[in-house]
């Protein structure tokens, strides 16, 4: 396929925190390497240091936007859509429902649009009524006008068929890379930086926003009385009352360690030496952090939302969403357990397979399959 592809809907790559960002960073270099595609990923200038760059064969183009939680995605998506028209991209791959708003515009200019639905972001508590309306509209526009639609979980595939009658969505899971640890002395250095020792802590990774449920985990940790530290990896792009309150509460709780955003070797090191992983979210797409924790064979405790249940872990891994008392009980039961093999679960989250499936969707969108 001799087509140029432009990607919009991500803050940028490489090494930015976020599910969509991790997804793009893993997927597009593979598509360039395996299939020789000409791919440009648009990034948001406030988050990256480059104007133009290349990452493992993927062209990167930073475009301006407003660093405002409600406006930055729509403004950037509009500019990226206009850039796609100007640059004569053949296929535009749109990620997430907020950027989905520009799908009709792209179709109007004759572009083939592949849309990946990652999450029902309008379920996040951080959004007000207007923002939720816009996100729902973005979902509707994308589902109605996109040439091809990709969903990342079977429950989302069923939901989109029910809501929009779109029964031709392509189910392509998120993926996880095999663990790639730095040398042991570097691992020890990273642990020492945060006052940690191997297997002496429970870890959670995520943005400090309400839908991630980290306040529930913090309350459960206080209740549990476990003799382990709690490491919260993450922060928020824009300070909010919630994120500031969460950090203040964490600083005032003995045993809690705040690392801020982590990526690369440092994040891998923290994952590799943890005792247990917890994902207390109220809303997810298909959580890459959970898949990463599973790749390190960590015992996991996750909320029982549909996205987490779609991973089909044993029932003993799930707790009722928002129930800090039940989560505290599970912390007491799970910490100190032996590593768990998830090899059978992880087979379908292979990036080489995901790249092949995505390439097939591009062929369909281009009319070549």
Automatic annotation (TrEMBL):
Highest taxon, organism lineage: Bacteria
SUPFAM superfamilies, A to Z: UDP-Glycosyltransferase/glycogen phosphorylase
Span of the signal peptide: none
Protein name: Glycosyl transferase
Segments forming domain Glycosyltransferase subfamily 4-like N-terminal: 18-178
Gene Ontology molecular function, alphabetical: transferase activity
Domain Glycosyl transferase family as annotated: residue spans: 197-329
Keywords: Transferase
Gene3D superfamilies per record: Glycogen Phosphorylase B (3.40.50.2000)
């Amino acid at each position: 396929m001799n087509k140029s592809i432009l990607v919009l809907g991500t803050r940028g790559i490489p090494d930015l925190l976020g599910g969509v960002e991790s997804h793009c960073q893993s997927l597009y270099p593979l598509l360039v390497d395996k299939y020789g595609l000409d791919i440009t990923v648009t990034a948001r200038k406030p988050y990256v240091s480059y104007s133009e760059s290349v990452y493992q064969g993927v062209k990167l183009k930073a475009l301006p936007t407003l660093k405002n939680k409600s406006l930055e995605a729509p403004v950037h998506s509009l500019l990226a859509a206009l850039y796609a028209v100007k640059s004569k991209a053949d296929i535009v791959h749109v990620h997430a429902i907020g950027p989905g708003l520009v799908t009709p515009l792209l179709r109007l200019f004759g572009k083939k649009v592949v849309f990946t639905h990652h999450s029902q972001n309008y379920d996040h508590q951080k959004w007000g009524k207007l923002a939720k309306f816009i996100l729902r509209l973005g979902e509707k526009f994308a589902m109605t006008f996109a040439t091809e639609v990709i969903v990342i979980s079977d429950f989302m595939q069923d939901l989109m068929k029910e809501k929009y009658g779109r029964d031709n969505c392509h189910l392509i899971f998120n993926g996880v890379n095999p663990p790639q640890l730095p040398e042991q002395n570097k691992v020890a250095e990273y642990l020492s930086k945060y006052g940690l020792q191997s297997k002496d802590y429970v870890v959670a990774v995520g943005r400090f926003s309400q839908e991630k449920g980290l306040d529930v985990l913090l309350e459960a940790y206080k209740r549990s009385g476990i003799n382990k530290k709690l490491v919260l990896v993450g922060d928020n792009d824009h300070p909010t009352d919630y994120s500031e309150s969460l950090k203040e509460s964490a600083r005032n709780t003995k045993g809690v360690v705040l690392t801020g955003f982590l990526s690369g070797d440092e994040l891998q090191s923290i994952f590799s030496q943890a005792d247990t992983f917890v994902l207390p979210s109220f809303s997810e797409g298909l959580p890459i952090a959970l898949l990463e924790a599973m790749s390190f064979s960590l015992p996991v405790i996750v909320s029982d939302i549909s996205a987490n249940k779609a991973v089909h872990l044993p029932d003993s891994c799930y707790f009722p969403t928002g129930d800090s008392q039940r989560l505290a009980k599970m912390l007491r039961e799970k910490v100190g357990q032996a590593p768990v093999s998830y090899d059978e679960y992880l087979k379908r989250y292979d990036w080489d397979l995901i790249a092949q499936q995505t390439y097939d969707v591009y062929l369909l969108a281009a009319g070549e399959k």
